[in-house]
Amino acid sequence: MAQINVSNLTFNYEGSFDNIFENVSFCIDTNWKLGFIGRNGKGKTTFLNLLMGKYEYSGCIKTNAVFDYFPYKYSPDTNLSASDLMEEWKAGVELWRVLIEMDELQIDAAKLYEPYAQLSFGEKTKIMLAVLFSGDNDFLLIDEPTNHLDVEARNLVKKYLASKRGFILVSHDADLLDSCIDHVLVLNRKSIDIQSGNFSMWWENKEKADEHARRENEKHSKEISKLKQAADRTSRWADKSENSKIGFDPIKEHDRQLNTRSYIGAKTKKMQSQVKAFEGRMDRAIQEKEGLLNDIEQTRNLKINPLKHYRDRLVYAKEYSLRYKDGDSDVISNLTFEINQGERVFISGQNGCGKSSLIKAIMGNNDNMIEGGILETASNLKISYINQDTSHLKGSLREYAFDNQLDYSMFLALLSHLDFDKVQFEKNIEDFSEGQKKKVLLAGSLMTSAHLYIWDEPLNYIDVFSRMQIEKLIEDFKPTMLIVEHDVRFKEKLATRVIEL
After folding, report:
1. Contact between 183 and 195 (Cβ < 8 Å)
2. At what angle do helices 95-104 and 82-89 cross, to 10 degrees?
3. Residue 497 CB: number of other CB atoms within 10 A?
4. Rounded to whole angstroms, how far apart are CA atoms 128 and 88?
5. How far is it, in rounded angstroms, from Cα 347 to Cα 328?
6. CA 381, 387, 391: angle at the middle one, nearest 5?
């Protein structure tokens, strides 16, 4: 067991005016199963890279822990197998220990010797985790391990991590965090918070703390308002009294004498001191109020403008089959379903079962496929699509808005609602975090009026607060949607129908 002591940590990327961390101090234990929570772009992955020694920083990170990081890097163009890559990933790794971990993750040992780049997302994740946990006394840094994984693979990874100890887990999946962590490290807006417990316990405590802060803020605001009124009233009396020192009407003020000037001056001075006292109390009250709302996540409601189609049934399939032109077996076989207006249909199934292929077929992008049976879409159907892949995003936000015929000002306003800082607007999209890139796609889709919204794994990398915004948007506007998403809670809350592949 060791500790990681962070003292006065300050870091920003070269060429950036905003600090990712500024005079941050905290201490964590390497025996913890620590969930790392925070908004997209707030520095979670950056902090893991700082622990790995990848960047220079000011301040101090003191520990004798040895770190290892998931995911490992590999070239997508390589034909190397995982057995070839293991030594590069983890120096001194022992095959027998990797095989033991693979057995826990229920993945065939033969997958070690297949070209790694050709494996499914689930198979790649399991092999990397098996290598990651095959060492001794490492403190493991695990960054978003369940993105792109189907429900079965997520459940397996969840149980696997729950049986381990000594890691930091970056994830926005509340179900995963609840299952396998015993502490949380939270990057709030203005502070860092460490608590024992899982995600739900932290969220319950946060809601209580936020409500208390709002009540205290309201109380202080009322007090400041009263003090301002009293100070203004006393100030006006003092000014009126001061102005009456010189000159008076002997008819109207027959009891007034020249020697009363000193008395008026003393009274004025007393009133002015009262004003200063009020101002001092106001300053103290304002100082107390400052910071009360700094860490409250005040999410704004999102909007969408779905189109109404003249047909109620937008998509219809009967005994529909789909296979690759060079394949000898169906990817999808004898599938029957329909999508009607107002429905939120989720496609569910294991990785590789044809979810993305079905989406492409519905959108008419199935040139590499052979179809069987019936698949019909309503005529003049307008579709807004979010791809699960963000690697194609490049250039400025202005260029993205222009290319997608989006109103630039409204686009920036929507990104602001999704917690983009103004400083982000000047960056190129390729410099964004993965969560921020996905928010660019979400904002573009929300600004596009369509009959059908097709979202392929929209929640990958998206922080928990933005997930809540998206859930509320769908509940409020009820757009017609076809969604691939493996987040169990999201599907259970929003799906009106599930297509099982």
Report:
1. yes
2. 110
3. 13
4. 12
5. 24
6. 145
Tens digit of each residue's pLDDT (9 = 90 or more) over 369-394: 888 899 999 999 999 999 988 889 99
Residue with tokens 């004003």: 275
Strands 497-500 and 481-484, by their bridges, are unpaired
Backbone φ and ψ for 49, nearest 5 degrees, come out as -70, -30
H helical segments located in 133-260: 151-162, 174-180, 199-243
DSSP line for 430-472: GGS-HHHHHHHHHHHHHTS--SEEEEESTTTT--HHHHHHHHH
The amino acid at residue 419 is D
Q: Which of 34, 305, 287 is nearest to 183 (CA)?
A: 34
Q: How far apart are CA 140 and CA 69, in angstroms?
A: 6
The pLDDT value given to residue 5: 94
CB 306 within 8 A of CB 477: yes
Residue 43: the pLDDT is: 86
Cβ 42 vs Cβ 187: under 8 Å = yes
What Cα–Cα distance (Å) separates residue 444 from each residue in 107, 211, 436, 447, 455? 38, 33, 12, 5, 12
Return d(Cα 227, Cα 233) in angstroms, integer: 10
Q: Tokens 């004025």 sit at which residue?
A: 268
- C-alpha to C-alpha distance for 424 and 447, rounded to whole angstroms: 20
Strands (E), 12-137: 21-29, 33-38, 58-62, 66-70
Phi, psi of 95 (to 5 degrees): -60, -45
* Regions of the chain where pLDDT drops below 70: 1, 15-17, 220-272, 274-299
Q: What is the DSSP string of 118-145?
A: GS-HHHHHHHHHHHHTTSSSEEEEEE-T
Q: Phi/psi at 93 (nearest 5 deg)?
A: -65, 145
Q: How far is CA 477 from CA 29, 303, 347, 480, in A?
A: 45, 8, 21, 9
Q: Encoding tokens for residue 95?
A: 């095959």
